[in-house]
Design brief:
Elements: E1 5-11, H1 31-42, E2 50-56, H2 57-62, E3 73-78, E4 91-93, H3 96-104, E5 111-116, H4 120-130, E6 133-139, E7 158-160, E8 163-171
Parallel strand pairs: 1-5, 1-6, 2-3, 2-5, 3-4
Antiparallel strand pairs: 6-8, 7-8
The chain binds NADP nicotinamide-adenine-dinucleotide phosphate (NAP).
Protein name: dihydrofolate reductase
Transmembrane segments: 125-148
InterPro entries: DHFR, DHFR-like_dom_sf, DHFR_dom
């Protein structure tokens, strides 16, 4: 079965995505940006189905424990070392292709959109090889990159707690 893979990432102007296991702008909290992440990843396109989020083991542990698993989404964690899912995660996969196989077999009936939510090695896969749509937040100043308008994603410059950012959507067509 063919599915669209979606990627979502918030990046600094230097394309950094994390620092010391946290987001680069930690401890500043960008509530609206989190809300955007939640809305994009948790809203299924088909009523009654549930979106899937796929993430690396370090991204899983970078999520505060009280927020794990990410609500309303099927959480798949990738690890080569773990033999069982970390506490709270729904599924464990030993590699990216096993995660996609899981989605297309055991989860086929219930799964809707598939979102890759980090970290860096997964973004490499999704950005350069597989991604059909990437929803990104460019934190800080405006960066001049082509972008594609997507319904429901604000195009205006955003500002929270002194940090400016823009939502950008890229589509591999
Ligand atoms: N800015 C953003 O939008 C964003 C999004 C997500 C995360 N982050 C940040 O990114 C950082 C975490 O990302 P990270 O790049 O350091 O780590 P990560 O990719 O989340 O996790 C790396 C680990 O995931 C497992 N893994 C990754 N690719 C795999 C594959 N293809 N097959 C099997 N296992 C795989 C391995 O786990 P094992 O070692 O257990 O084998 C690997 O050590 C944190 O600072 C977090 O805050 C930022």
């Amino acid at each position: 079965m063919s599915r669209i893979l979606n990627g979502i990432v918030a990046v600094c102007p230097n394309l950094g995505i994390g620092k010391d296991g946290k987001l680069p702008w930690h401890p500043i909290r960008l509530s609206n940006e989190f809300a955007h992440f939640r809305k994009m990843t948790a809203t299924p396109s088909v009523a009654g189905k549930t979106n899937v989020v796929i993430m690396g083991r370090k991204t899983w542990f970078s999520i505060p424990e009280k927020n794990r698993p990410l609500k309303g989404r099927i959480n798949i964690v990738l690890s080569r070392e773990y033999k069982v899912p970390p506490a709270g995660a729904h599924y464990l996969a030993a590699d990216f292709s096993s995660a996609l196989t899981l989605v297309d077999t055991e989860l086929a009936e219930q799964a809707d959109q598939v979102w890759v939510i980090g970290g860096s090695s997964l973004y490499k896969v999704i950005f350069f090889l597989l991604c059909l749509k990437v929803f990104s937040t460019l934190v800080h100043y405006i960066i001049f990159i082509f972008f594609f308008r997507f319904p429901g994603v604000p195009k205006e410059l955003q500002e929270e707690n002194g940090i400016q950012y823009k939502f950008e959507v890229y589509e591999n067509i």
